[in-house]
């Protein structure tokens, strides 16, 4: 995961509060990605997924808990091999930690300069904590391509499910596999499905 997550940006409008780039990243993220995400038409109340040629982006607007502080847009960039569920779990951890540390401060001002530098340590924590506490690892087999896959599913997808099994579409190669996941985080069946849009 440490090698897959390449970029993190936290901000709103023209303000960036935190910007992190994986030192191992060979891909350059530019300001255009940030501007496009922040100006995305729509409410951004759920994760938007964008696939570029050599990286992926996930972004969404996340409200601070109990309305304390400013609503911000979180942007995560990763390698094409990184699963969206992993990126979203990383974002979940980061946003929770962020609002825990900084919510009070946003009530005053937003020009704090180095104050946010310390958050880099929390990004490091994420690489340890997210696989342990925010993700469930499962294996599945796709009969179309006769391959086994290791998949990561957000724990919150199971925890917040209104009913079981939870459906999840796993897109790979040129097709999609529909998985059914039970309350224990195990797959209870899968089928290749047609795609439209
Ligand atoms: Zn397949």
Structure description:
This protein is 24% helix and 36% strand. It has helices at residues 31-38, 84-102, 119-134, 155-159; strands spanning 5-12, 15-21, 48-51, 56-62, 72-78, 135-142, 147-154, 166-172, 175-181, 187-193. A 5-stranded antiparallel β-sheet has the order 2-1-5-4-3, with helices on both faces. A 3-stranded antiparallel β-sheet has the order 8-9-10, with no helix packed on it. The longest helix is centred in the middle third of the chain and has 19 residues, at 84-102.
Global mean pLDDT: 91
Task: Give me the CATH architecture of the largest domain, please.
Answer: 2-Layer Sandwich
CATH level 1 class label of the largest domain: Alpha Beta
Q: Using DSSP, what is the number of strands?
A: 10
Write the layout of secondary structure elements.
Elements: E1 5-12, E2 15-21, H1 31-38, E3 48-51, E4 56-62, E5 72-78, H2 84-102, H3 119-134, E6 135-142, E7 147-154, H4 155-159, E8 166-172, E9 175-181, E10 187-193
Helix pairs in contact: 2-3
The structure holds zinc ion.
In brief:
With 197 residues, the protein is an alpha+beta fold. The chain is built from 4 helices and 10 strands. Bound molecules: zinc ion.
């Amino acid at each position: 995961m440490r090698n897959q997550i390449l970029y993190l940006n936290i901000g709103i409008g023209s303000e960036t509060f935190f910007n992190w780039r994986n030192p191992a990243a060979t891909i350059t993220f530019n300001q255009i990605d940030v501007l496009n995400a922040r100006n995305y038409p729509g409410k951004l109340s759920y994760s938007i997924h964008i696939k570029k040629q050599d990286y992926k982006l996930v972004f969404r607007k996340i409200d601070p808990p109990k309305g304390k502080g400013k609503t911000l847009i979180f942007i995560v960039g990763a390698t094409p091999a990184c699963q969206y569920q992993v990126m979203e779990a990383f974002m979940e951890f980061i946003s929770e930690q962020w609002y825990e540390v900084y919510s009070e401060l946003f009530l005053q001002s937003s020009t704090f300069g180095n104050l946010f530098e310390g958050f880099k340590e929390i990004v490091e924590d994420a690489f340890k904590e997210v696989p342990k506490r925010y993700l469930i690892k499962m294996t599945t087999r796709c009969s179309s391509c006769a391959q086994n896959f290791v998949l990561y599913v957000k724990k919150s997808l199971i925890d917040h499910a209104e009913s079981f099994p939870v459906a999840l579409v796993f897109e790979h190669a040129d097709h999609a596999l529909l998985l059914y996941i039970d309350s224990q985080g195990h797959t209870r069946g899968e089928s290749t499905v047609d795609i439209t849009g």
